[in-house]
Amino acid sequence: MNIVLGVDVGGSTTKIVGFKAGKMMGVLQVRAGDQITSLFGAIGNYLLKFGEGLDNVSQIVLTGVGATFIKEPIYGIDTRKIDEFLAIGHGALYLTGLSEALVLSLGTGTALVRAGPDGVAHIGGSGVGGGTIVGLASQMLNKSDIDAVIEMAENGDLANVDLSVKDIIGSEIPSLPPDLTAANFGKIKSMASDADIALGILNLVFQTAGLLAVFAARNDTVRDIVMTGTLTTFPQAEKMQALFSELYGLNFIIPQHSVFATAIGACRVGGKFGSNL
Q1: Phi, psi of 229 (to 5 degrees)
Q2: What is the per-residue pLDDT for 214?
Q3: Residues 175 and 191 in one domain
């Protein structure tokens, strides 16, 4: 009994990670119709994948919105719940090796926390996130599959949707790229294709999230912004990372296993090896 499982039960997916003798075993993500099914499915699939049995699990640490539905120990195993913001912060520091950072968690919505030697503090957030993509795509494109939206956006052109800086000024501004969005959907044309609209939706979400972090950094000495959550796997995440790092002089980081940062943080904080942080 030396395995600690960390499970992030989110609004649409469940992420799980295991630590054996204090070392990370691997990660797994599960989608299901409801959060309880997703949670138990994730645990079963994870143990099967790594060839472990329930009798080897000493503790399960839960976080995320779906954790509130669990009232009893899972399978009779010691089960704990960890505050999601605390898990986000510690997970990001663990994945990057940083001592302090601003953490931008891109999930169904967007959360921003500051993590460092003095602890983890929730700075704020936005309702703009993955849920926004699904909602707008359902109404504007009749698509509810987020993967289909990503694929569709590959052939999109923002010039048919967004009003850019050059559209307003008519000339270059040394401090701003001419193609930078001045107004999301501010120039949408009747000729705009579904691909253009899909890209416009993604651009709206990622720029809003990125600027949230930029404004927070303006009131802080920290220059490292760690991006975590499901949306960090989207192509637009890397584009935003590069653009905003250059434009605002900040270090946007997408670490390996960024999708699983919250589950990892829950494990590190709530596990029996938590003192090893």
Answers
A1: 105, 170
A2: 96
A3: yes
The whole domain housing 269 covers: 3-87+261-276
User: What is the predicted pLDDT for the residue at 274?
Assistant: 43
- Fill in the amino acid letter for 169: I
Same domain, 66 and 140: no
Query: What is the percentage of the chain residues whose pLDDT exceeds 70?
Result: 95
CA distance 193 to 152: 10
Burial of 222 (0-12, 13-18, 19+ CB in 10 A): middle
Angle at 259 (CA atoms; ends 252, 64), nearest 5 degrees = 115
- Alpha-carbon torsion (132, 137, 143, 146), positive or negative: negative
- At residue 108, what are phi and psi to the nearest 5 degrees? -60, -40
Distance CA 206, CA 187 (A): 18
List the structure tokens of 17. Answer: 């990670």
